[in-house]
Amino acid sequence: MKLELVRDGCMAARLGVRLSENYFKKKGELLEQAMFLQLDKLWLGTSQTAELLEEDESIILSRRRQPGMLHEQLRSLGLSRFIDKAFAIQGDKAEWVRERYPDCRKTVIGDSHADLQIGKLAHTRCLMVGCGLESKERLSTVGVPFMFFDSLDSCRLYLSTSPERTG
User: Fold this and answer.
1) How far is CA 142 from CA 17, 120, 137, in A?
2) Is the per-residue pLDDT at 95 higher than 90?
3) From CA 120, how far away is CA 98, in angstroms rounded?
4) In the chain, which ranges are E strands?
């Protein structure tokens, strides 16, 4: 069932339980622990992710309380050669991108309001996946146009056939 219902809220609804704020707080804490992050898997696979990151302007941007954990996670996923392209921040993602890449064409692949907010910047397209933090309905409240993919496979297919992968 977990493979079918990857978002916690969907899983809880199917099981008939309500997730409390304590659950989300605890999950947020776990997302900062190496033991928990080692369970993470790349949805594009190591070679396809590496191919995307090898493009000159590609970066990894993640909000983290412990910035070193992003580098640890990249090492455990076999992507340590991209640590110099990985930025762990504690503030606003859109502001960070605006300050550093104001006139560049951008493609954001994400699953949260914070990712979608980057779409308000000029020259940006957003590809949102429904297997992460937010549902399509919640993302729609941001007021930013985006392409939505129900599964990681459909996003992967789009990326592999898109003539312009970076915007």
Assistant:
1) 27, 10, 10
2) yes
3) 10
4) 60-63, 86-89, 106-110, 124-129, 147-149
**For position 36, what pLDDT does the model report?**
67
| Cα 115 to Cα 134: distance, rounded to the nearest angstrom | 10
What phi and psi values does residue 66 have, to the nearest 5 degrees? -120, 95
Averaged pLDDT of the chain:
78
- Please, are residues 57 and 22 in contact by the beta-carbon 8 Å criterion? no
Note the pLDDT of residue 44: 63
Question: Domains of the chain by range and CATH?
Answer: 1-30 (no CATH), 92-167 (3.40.50.1000)
pLDDT at 4: 41
Judge contact between 97 and 61, C-beta under 8 A: yes
Q: Are 152 and 129 in contact (CB under 8 A)?
A: yes
Strand partners, 63: 89
DSSP 48: H
